[in-house]
Amino acid sequence: MIEEAIDIKKILRRYGLKSTPQRIAVYSAMRELGHASADVVFQQASAKLTTLTVATVYNVLESFVQVGLLQRRMSSNNKMYMDVNTYNHCHLYCEETHTFRDYDDPELMLMIHDHFRNKRIRGFDLHRIDVQLVGKNRRVGRSK
């Protein structure tokens, strides 16, 4: 736990954020969860830091998004999820469970980025490409 807190302090410092107990608890929860809503982060983080409030979790998550430490993920149940992995990757989104999984396909991402590299979309400035594949998790043991 101590090594993890030191590691998180370094990460927060790299992003220009002060290492408060609240930020450490929230980021630690996000690292464990990967993709999570603020409510789930609160449940996990408040088990370690009992003075944490839901409002603080929302504020901390937003500050992480603002500096690029997390990215937002929108689900079909209109709930905002956060993603701890900010590298260029795709997501698999399950409509039944409202869960996200990372899906790494560098070839696909390269094709998409190459396609849009020199494209101009009238009236729109493209800042980021976000690929999300929507479906349902297949049950283990079920045939394709």
Question: How would you describe this structure to a colleague?
Answer:
42% of the residues lie in helices and 17% in strands. It has a three-stranded antiparallel β-sheet with strand order 1-3-2. A three-stranded mixed β-sheet has the order 5-4-6, with no helix packed on it. The radius of gyration is 17 Å and the shape is globular. The model has no long low-confidence stretch (mean pLDDT 89). It is of the alpha+beta class and 144 residues long. The chain has helices spanning 2-14, 21-33, 38-46, 54-67, 106-117; strands spanning 35-37, 71-74, 80-83, 90-94, 99-103, 132-135.
The major sheet is characterized as: 3 strands, antiparallel
**Helix-strand category:** alpha+beta
The CATH homologous superfamily of the largest domain is termed Winged helix-like DNA-binding domain superfamily/Winged helix DNA-binding domain
- Specify the CATH architecture of the largest domain: Orthogonal Bundle
Spatial order of the strands forming the largest sheet:
1-3-2
Average predicted confidence as pLDDT: 89
Order of helical and strand elements: HHEHHEEEEHE
**Percent range of helical residues:** 40-55%
**CATH fold call of the largest domain:** Arc Repressor Mutant, subunit A
The low-confidence parts are none
Q: According to CATH, what is the class of the largest domain?
A: Mainly Alpha
